Amino acid sequence: MVMTMTSLDKYSMQDIFFTCNMNATIEHLKQFLAGSLPQSQVRVDEPENAGGNYWVDVSMGKKRHTIEYRPGKGFGLFHEDAAYGEGPAEIYRTPERAAQRIAQLMTVGNSKALRLGLKDLRELYGHSQVALAKKAGVKQPAISRFENRGEVKLSTLAATIKALGGKLEVRAHFEDADIPISLSTPKG
User: Are 80 and 66 a contacting pair, CB within 8 Å?
Assistant: First the structure.
């Protein structure tokens, strides 16, 4: 007996595999959160249809943070000061990094942790000042000064972010627009 699959069967199979993969991703997030924040409570609201967004509420004592998981996009973290309709303030592409950031937010005693400084980024990506200095081609005291300085040159910040494995982007936020700003000047 030869079985042939109709397009409806293929679609149903795809939904089953897609849902299983998404559930596995959410389970990984829950495992990482349990490992780094054993006292936390995690509540997951699953999407109504395949491909929808998951909402994850993480609470520990009086602290609470919300994560939106968008398949193919990553884990979005919302800040308390976000207005209705705004997207997430931070996006992480892996459950490990999202859980690390939530742990960072939950274990710091003040609201300063909502905005990442260079030290927070360095710690989130698991680098010591010495390791980051080596990658950035500077000495460790320079990283220390940079982390504690209020004003920095964009070129220095871009080089440091690159040493962490990232790329610096600058955006201007207006009441009616968010616009990326080019840091390089066109030649010609």
Answer: no
Model confidence pLDDT, tens digit, residues 19-54: 456 689 999 999 999 999 999 999 999 999 888 999
Stated pTM of the model = 0.75
Residue 20 three-state SS: helix
CATH fold label, 116-188: 434 Repressor (Amino-terminal Domain) (1.10.260)
What are the residues whose beta carbons fall under 8 Å from the beta carbon of 46, sequence distance 6 or more? 54
Angle, CA of 100, 106 and 112, to the nearest 5°: 100
Residues of the chain with CATH 1.10.260.40: 116-188
What would the pLDDT profile of 76-113 be if each residue is shown by its tens digit? 998 777 667 778 889 999 999 999 999 999 987 655 56
Q: Rounded CA gap, 22 and 19, in Å?
A: 5
DSSP strands (E only) in 34-182: 41-45, 54-60, 63-70, 74-77, 90-92, 170-174, 177-181
Candidates 28, 29, 38, 149; CA nearest to 77 is: 29
**CA 71 to each of CA 27, 39, 58, 86: distance values in angstroms, whole numbers, following the listed order:** 14, 27, 19, 18
